[in-house]
Batch of 2 targets.
Target 1
Amino acid sequence: MAEPLHSVDSLERTTPAHACIVCEREEVETFLDLGETALANKFRTRAELEEPEPHYPLRVGFCRECGHVQLTERVPPSAMFEDYLYISSASDTLRDHLHELSDVVVARFGLDATDLVVDIGCNDGTLLDGFQRHGVKTLGVDPARNLAGLGNSGVERYVGFFDSDSAVEIAERWGRAAAMTATNTFPHIPHVHDFVAGIDTVLAPGGAFVIEAHYVVDMLEQGAFDTIYHEHVSYWALAPMQRLFARHGFHVVNAERLPIHHGQLRATVMRVGEGTVQESVERLLTEERRLGVDNVETFERFADEVRRIKTDLLAMLAELRAQGKRVVGYGAPAKGNTLLAFLELGPRAIEYIVDRSPLKQGRFTPNAPIPVVHPDRLLEDQPDYVLLLAWNFAEEILEQQAEYRRQGGRFIVPVPRVRIIP
Ligand code: ZN
């Protein structure tokens, strides 16, 4: 018997296939096909290796009408987010960053103990911990049942997807929010118009919605094709984002690029008539046009670069294998699985992967199963090379692994071009 489907899934079936999620026209053209892969966050237990693993096409396209970059085939969100293995507090860099974001929002909007902040996709509550340091009221929204007991137990939660229906319930139970946040969540949303309608319901007059998401410009500049996996329906540029919000009476009032992960976009959205549009918005739009983010040919060139990374890395790994070198991986982020699957790397090429997250240790990667173990293993058996899958945290990881490197261990960084770091 089929599991009861969430309303988002029912919507999934009524949306015409391949229509753009922003302008709803059918002008989306695939520019990169990464094959059929398993879900990037579905690390499996040993017992689960015996079970069939669903694979889905992973294709990304460009909308010729509005310029929005998006997956052309989508997986129902319930298959991805109700049991979730990514936790924000697993990285020191990310925790510090989220706390800094809470400081900025509290200061910019003068929030105090009478104000409510709603964080959509609150994960383990790391960002809301930051807000609680300022005495602000908080509510976290997240469909992941397995994360509800993690992190700060003082963070109140709504366990479910955020959409126009749950927004009504949230506003009734907790009241309207002075600020709403979504960090690394907004690109997950397939039904963006329904989502923004929900924001309109929950956000108090004068309130601000702050988005942090991977930025398509960074993806292009860094060859970061591993940002592409099924959870990430969208690869936002500012121009299509403005178009989306305009339809709901909102505008982007501030936009900035951040160094966190491999670069992110932080956009602040308010109702038209509220908030002053900062110069930063026009500056970024000009930059996007200069880089050709509004042109499909830019993305076709990007796809060529991605295929080159594959060729180069496979050649390097083959050479190392011929020399009898041992290669393992560092970091089990979802993005690592895009790279491993696209290059068809399994446990023969990468013996094991080390990762600090206790939720992933003892599990196996999706697709070809590579075991995930504790980082201490690196010093215990000193393999020759480590493929840096979590390359966006390169600095932090290289510093933590100073001893492994001192003993002769080397790191392979896959993007934007394949290189070795001693
Ligand atoms: Zn479009």
Note: Residues 298-421 form a domain with the Rossmann fold fold (CATH 3.40.50.720).
Target 2
Amino acid sequence: MQENNTQGTDISTLGEFGLIKHLSKNVKLTQASTLKGIGDDAAVLNQSGKKTVVTTDLLVEGIHFDLMYTPLRHLGYKAIVVNVSDVYAMNAEPKQVTVSIAISKRFTLEAIDEIYEGINMACEKYNVDLVGGDTTSSLTGLCISVTAIGEADEDKITYRSGAQVNDLICVTGDLGAAYAGLQLLDREKRIFENNPEIQPDLTGHDYILERQLKPEARKDIFESLQDAKIVPTSMIDISDGLSSELFHICEESNVGCQIYEEKIPIDYETHKMAEELNMNYSIFALNGGEDYELLFTVPLDKFEKIEKIPDVKVIGHICDASKGKYMVARDNTEIALQAQGWTNFTE
Ligand code: ADP
Ligand code: MG
């Protein structure tokens, strides 16, 4: 656990322009569509012939992250990842990002540098150019807002609204691990606050911690779908838990769904954490958040192709809206899914 760094270079020694110059000196531009990046009143892009997708996420200290246990480098990385994830969820390719930050005096130049190290690392990994942003002070706390810009052929863009009856429901990776990681960090934080002598015990939980602190977006799946020439009928990224994302797809597509509890992919460490906390691991997957996996639907005849893509699981199918949205539990009972959260687990 860490207290905020109180030693280091005061940002006011650079001034706003000095800071922007400092932050942008390591920025490399690699996208052909970036004509002008940082340094003018606006960036200039040249997206020839494709459609543009734009998405923004705002991360606020104390609401979306806790600096007691979030390393600043990871925070910068995650701020980019959550945005490119939204672009992939449109079946589009992220190309540029802008980053806006509001910082209080509590943050030193070294602290801001760490955030940007993470930002630059993610930009490199996901092959996006940092082309602009805004910098301002805040009275308390830290806010980071990222906008991602991507492109896609018009006929490839995948909305939440295209799911058809009998389509297969697919998810990538495993679910609930980021939530399990958050539960662990919150528990250890409480212990630390009650007794700072006790150092947190995080051993054996590497995977769930990484899922919470350093999530990745599914660039690989976007590419695999392209290689397999599959355009999903609908798609969404899983940021708020499987249940509410399924709800979004069903509501937007005007259909119902049936999924199977036993088919939901859950990692062993997530199981273990849920057990330690006396909670049900399926609830971590259904109601947890921040997995940044992809949830999508494909026509039934794509089953063989989908099966060949590593890390994609079929967990159910789309049905008529009149059937509702439900999960077949391990004991074969049918449980209604909820938009936010999900109750009646034992019913
Ligand atoms: P303006 O007064 O027009 O808002 P700024 O002085 O805020 O211009 O920004 C100058 C340049 O630096 C612009 O290209 C802007 O996009 C970029 N920029 C400002 N803040 C950031 C930041 N935090 N990260 C990346 N680029 C930034
Ligand atoms: Mg500005």
Note: DSSP finds ten helices and 13 strands in the chain.
